[in-house]
Write a structure and sequence with these properties.
alpha/beta, 12 helices, Rossmann fold, two-stranded antiparallel sheet, 5-stranded parallel sheet
């Protein structure tokens, strides 16, 4: 849990100190030659010109939203918009529209068969002040969030803890990480027009309008009829149909659980106290 307020940690001098420490660690990493270290430094300095970023709270609809926009972009360019289940997620011809904003980016250690699509959208789960790139201030950022209660309940099962290990889930820092993310990006969104906030609940309730606003913020050339066609191709049933039978229950993008309460009453009170104490940027959520 951050000791200093997010507004302080977000400030340039504090971020500069943190970034200097991160860069020093990278430069000291064994196994990297001089050219690789220079490439990492150049990427940290200017992100190679990439200016689109999505910062997402876990389980906030990131993979769904980027899939729909990827399909829409392909259709807008005359492609067939066909995608498949690929390495526990969905991808267009083995490619993704996004890539983690990570210091290893310049090392070309790509895990996918075909690479990545353009325009590339960088992605992070990190709080704003931890993003390892000096040019993050200039990026058109979509901030994807969700009611932290729902995000945490989904993560409890997604990360393999379940009800039997909910104490360990809290002690391993998942609540603290959610608070740090929401606080840091909430403080950033309050002072920057380059940050566009998307709530998971709005994405599910009004998908076309929400995704259209995301595309506009990122300056993607997608018209509404094309987006509507992409949405029709990425319904829950269409996505599920593409999952091989032997992988359906192992899909890490879906939480399989019953409708009972995720946390015990004791732990609900514990988490509620942490959220109440740590969250000042609440994004309209009234139950925290």
């Amino acid at each position: 849990m951050a000791i200093l307020p997010a507004g302080v940690l977000n400030r340039a001098p504090v971020r500069a100190l943190r970034n200097a420490t991160s860069i020093a660690r990278v430069l000291a990493t064994p196994g990297l030659d001089t050219e690789e270290k220079r490439a990492c430094w150049r990427f940290f300095r200017d992100a190679w010109g990439y200016r689109r970023l999505v910062a997402s709270l876990p389980r906030s609809g990131f993979h769904y939203a980027t899939l729909v926009l990827t399909v829409a972009l392909d259709l807008a360019r005359g492609g067939d918009g066909e995608y498949a289940y690929f390495r526990d997620t969905w991808a267009l011809r083995g490619c993704h529209q996004y890539r983690p904003l990570d210091w290893r980016f310049p090392l070309d250690r790509i895990d996918y068969d075909e690479g990545y699509l353009e325009p590339l959208i960088l992605h992070t789960h990190m709080p704003y002040y931890q993003v390892p790139c000096r040019r993050v201030d200039a990026m058109r950022t979509v901030l994807m969030i969700r009611n932290p209660w729902d995000s945490l309940e989904s993560q409890l099962f997604r990360e393999g803890y379940g009800r039997d290990r909910q104490d360990a889930f809290i002690e391993d820092g998942f609540v603290d990480k959610a608070i740090a993310f929401l606080e840091a990006w909430g403080a950033r969104a309050a002072v920057s027009e380059l940050v566009h906030v998307v709530r998971y609940e709005d994405l599910m309730r009004a998908s076309a309008e929400t995704l259209s606003a995301m595309a506009d913020h990122w300056q993607l050339d997608i018209d509404r009829p094309t987006l509507a066609e992409a949405l029709a191709r990425t319904t829950r049933d269409e996505m599920r149909r593409r999952i091989p039978t032997d992988r359906a229950e192992a899909n890490p993008r879906v939480s399989f659980r019953d409708d009972g309460p995720a946390f015990s009453e004791r732990n609900r009170q514990r988490i509620a106290a942490m959220l109440s104490r740590g969250l000042h940027h609440r994004f309209g959520y009234t139950d925290i």
